[in-house]
Specification:
This protein has no helices and six strands. The chain has a six-stranded antiparallel beta sheet with strand order 4-3-2-1-5-6, with no helix packed on it. The two termini are 22 Å apart. By secondary structure, it is mainly beta.
Length: 81
């Protein structure tokens, strides 16, 4: 069976394929001192790999989804604490 997730903003459901981790860093040279004091932006985020009913694979940020069911069993019925 599969893990079914729901995209919180669109309400669409997907099959969870896997998880991943994204990180980025970019720098912009400072106007006066160039690369010595560059303006740096960086961050990280968790991603989930999903597919829709046509099999199209997509990546969605993990904070934007909720688990609906696991192996055909509703999440509220699972023995979780």
């Amino acid at each position: 069976m599969a893990t079914i997730i729901k995209h919180n903003t669109t309400g669409k459901t997907y099959c969870l394929l896997g998880t991943g981790f994204g990180a980025y860093q970019s720098s912009k040279p400072n106007m006066f001192l160039g690369n010595w004091l560059a303006d740096v932006a960086e961050g990280q985020y968790a991603m989930v790999c999903v597919c829709d009913k046509q099999g199209k694979v997509s990546w969605i940020q993990a904070e934007n989804v909720s688990v609906v069911s696991v192996d055909g069993q509703n999440v509220s019925e699972l023995p979780l604490t």
